[in-house]
Amino acid sequence: MSHSQQQIEIWTERLLLRGAQESDLEAFCAWFRDPQAMQFWSTAPHTTTAQTKKFLDSMIASPYNGVLDFTVCLNSDGASSSSDSEEGNLIVIGKAGLWDGEEIGFIFNRDYWRKGYAFEALDAIIRHLWDNHLDVGVVKADVDPRNRASLNLLRRLGFVVVGEAKSTFETHIGWCDSVYLEARRPVSVE
């Protein structure tokens, strides 16, 4: 992927996916402080705003911000395009995307779980990737096997298990195992 790509916005039926901004800090704090939302994250829940600001600043500085990695905003007025909505009608509910250009990651405010937003956001990101980034043919995921919700979501998105490993990462909940999944670019039939 070229690191000089311009940030984009992806609109879905209910969501806007856009690059992270400094104004997202309060929303990011909501889920990064939530022990349930952070259960399977690579770090413990944040205890200070400074921790979350450091994460957000690194996301903003990343060449993937707004290109392959996005802040997920819910359109609270039901409009489905930028011409129909104003930024004031958008609620930041999560982040999702290829944070390193290869591996998909996502986290959402728990108030918005089980409403289809994660599927809608990730499906849009993967479709965008397949349609616009010819140099990326595989998207990877590394999930703790206890994180059934994420595993089920990724399978619904077409990811398949390609491997497993024990004690791959030590986090705030101890040593974690890994289930490795991949989604491959569909082969086009001409």
Automatic annotation (TrEMBL):
InterPro entries: Acyl_CoA_acyltransferase, GNAT_dom, N-acetyltransferase
Location of the N-acetyltransferase domain: 15-186
Stored Gene3D superfamilies: 3.40.630.30
GO MF term set: acyltransferase activity, transferring groups other than amino-acyl groups
PANTHER family according to UniProt: GNAT FAMILY, PUTATIVE (AFU_ORTHOLOGUE AFUA_3G00765)-RELATED-RELATED (PTHR43792), N-ACETYLTRANSFERASE DOMAIN-CONTAINING PROTEIN (PTHR43792:SF1)
Protein name according to UniProt: N-acetyltransferase domain-containing protein
Organism from which the protein derives: Hebeloma cylindrosporum
